[in-house]
User: What shape does this take?
Amino acid sequence: MIIVSNRGPVTFSRSESGERRYSRGAGGLVTALNAVMRLSEGAVWVASARSEEDVEVARETRGFYREVEEGGGEGREGTLRVALVEHDERDYDLMYNHLANPLIWFVHHGLYDLPRSPNLGDDTRRAWEAYRRVNASFAETVSEVASGLGDDEPTVLVHDYHLYTTPGEVRERLGEGAFISFFLHIPWPEPDLWRVLPRYVREEVLASLLSSNVVAFHTRRYAEAFLATVREVPGAEVDHDRSVVRCGDREVWVRVYPISIDPEEFASFARSEAVIEEERRVRELPGKLLLRVDRMDLSKNIVRGFAAYERMFERHPETVGKVTFLAQLQPSRQEVPEYAAYAREIEAAARRVNDRYGTADWTPVRLAMEDNFVRSVAAYKNYDALLVNAVRDGMNLVAKEGAIVNERGGVLVLSEGAGAFEELREGAVPVSPFDLDEQADAIHRALTMPRKERERLAGTLRSRVLENTIEDWVRAQLADIETYRSGGSGY
Amino acid sequence: MIIVSNRGPVTFSRSESGERRYSRGAGGLVTALNAVMRLSEGAVWVASARSEEDVEVARETRGFYREVEEGGGEGREGTLRVALVEHDERDYDLMYNHLANPLIWFVHHGLYDLPRSPNLGDDTRRAWEAYRRVNASFAETVSEVASGLGDDEPTVLVHDYHLYTTPGEVRERLGEGAFISFFLHIPWPEPDLWRVLPRYVREEVLASLLSSNVVAFHTRRYAEAFLATVREVPGAEVDHDRSVVRCGDREVWVRVYPISIDPEEFASFARSEAVIEEERRVRELPGKLLLRVDRMDLSKNIVRGFAAYERMFERHPETVGKVTFLAQLQPSRQEVPEYAAYAREIEAAARRVNDRYGTADWTPVRLAMEDNFVRSVAAYKNYDALLVNAVRDGMNLVAKEGAIVNERGGVLVLSEGAGAFEELREGAVPVSPFDLDEQADAIHRALTMPRKERERLAGTLRSRVLENTIEDWVRAQLADIETYRSGGSGY
Assistant: This one.
């Protein structure tokens, strides 16, 4: 089995004494793929070389992989096999900073002000050509690793929107014997939104995805949107009831595997000294605790969250002074103008609430623009209400993480635009991300709900998360691959 | 048969001498419904009372209808039966200016900058309640007219997004015997976009539409989007192959009837003295003629059109000085801040091109912000290229009107976001509304295409329009109603 993702599990560096070292990658996707590695003996992980030392490793191991010792005494020891892909720097920059993260991300999350942006053109085409070259390099490494392993019919799991054309390139190199699965971790845009992308991008992405055996998403909604998009592809026949696309002789199974967390690992981290130490500071915040934890992305709807909080004070004046809104916001992509502008809007919105309602003893909004995971987890344990009001969000693991470690019967206010909504709606107070009064009332309800109802909701949330852990996520995929490869018919 | 639309075919007024007069309504929808009236003997048209004198007429004819003599010597004489609905002024204002035209229009055309707008709340709910009351008044009048006609099982044709809850209200009053058809003249938004509307709006609109017998759209795409939206409604069973929704005992047929024009009537107007007179002025414009004719709406993509034209000069400098871009833009909704801002952007974009490239003898962009139908038709006859680059557009009749009367083998540059794209793509140069370089090259290609290819495209366009005139549009609907009522199974 070969796993392919842009970001890998480790980054190499060299110490001052010249010794090679590595550090573990972070983020939801890497955590998830680590679980795949654990459950798939002998798997190799192909990822981009991102540091200078990564490039060295890439060159040394060309055509094979490097073994890295895992561990840290938490029962996860083992050997990780990694193959790194060296890219042309300019191509990688075009792929990452000019195509995938601005254009594809914005389209898939519906973030453009369409009467005004995007303004596409030949720049887009050049970035797309670089994107394809980067993907071809991935496929080349996959092909070399397969051959190094002596595996003619490998299972190749390709992950996320940086690697849309990798399945097609792998199919070209390895033929029909390879089993290719593509997993998208962001929403799939419905056809009208999809058409914001240039025609050549749309055609090449779809041709590549339809050369996979499985295309998988976090929610049924995204799978439906993908099927609707594929209906417009000539030669692709959609069997909606079986959630299958027939392309010539191949069936492409369109599947839904909602990603999750590792509850045990997460709970164990939540019990760590560092977190407990940090909890003291969190508990000093006056009044009830309303929390949000987000990357500073336009999709997260942070500004409307502050506006809704302000409206809560207008609509329920008795709450003034009795709650603190802690916003743990991880800075993100600040070199992109849209993100820099959004960061300023976030600060202005928080300041407005604080100027209007703050006193010498009470700051209504505590804005922490920092990457502080320990503090986030400390806050998870202590929130009375957790706000996840995203405009659109592939899954949103914050909702699941909070549910697992919160100790106050905290209530989740959850946007129907978050992927997590499909699984968690019955354990949450649902909101439209666009309705400020509704969000204001939902936050108020979450903060004032009777203990019994709070606990019922928290219990529901917790069981929903425990019913589908990251291991379940992996096992469901492996089981379907097994069924498909042995000629079964799926649904 | 009872036709229901917000705007009616006539508006009444009183002359200084106290005599009652009326003027004919204009616009694509009214023209289309006039064709329905012509082909449906004895039909009554129910519409809003919009003037003071309309209100008088509404009161006098309550429970019945008023006959109006049609005519003007163009072979369309006859008697029009009209029933006007009096509304509470405040309710009507909320329905029209606070709900239908900003919110529903923006959502259906995908015009919101979603990370920032809309900001919904209790105001929205109040506007929605007014919208429902206005719709209930429509249904009340329909019910009175039906009873005045002595028709227990009338066929009721309800038109467009101002009247979303009218089908449900009519069903409630007239029972299952009535045959209700709802026609939407704007795009239906796919589920993610649809969810921008508040939950109560979505639920009540869908419940109402699903109490119809037929729900109809201009394009297959909109019908697909509607079916995808309905999949999420509990109790509604979608039969995708038959394009039918089963709701309890009733089948709702989801149908596609692309609206069109009356080519004869249009061509006859194009031959009128007034148009011929105006043509002289149009022909004085230097160089080839690039034309656009649009209402000044954010969905029309007017700013990007000027930017693409400017890029054509950069990419094909030999075209500088050899073309005039005439933009006939009808002012619209200028009291709405978004529209006023967009008008300023349009002016700035045109000015930028003129400042950069204009000379004493040549103005590259002629911006005519006026409602001048005669001039538009004069320009239709004389364009070398017609630009329709809408972000999203229910149909776009400009493309069809131009195709019928143009006399220069003019080439249509057509956005894939326009509803007309489904019918006319093979007779047009297709463009993405978001790609400026592609639009620049498409305009260039349209202006420089060899005569033979121009004429082939113009011929294709013309036959596509003639294959499906406004009468065909009406007849297809009447035929399906006949089939449905006689127990047939449609597709």
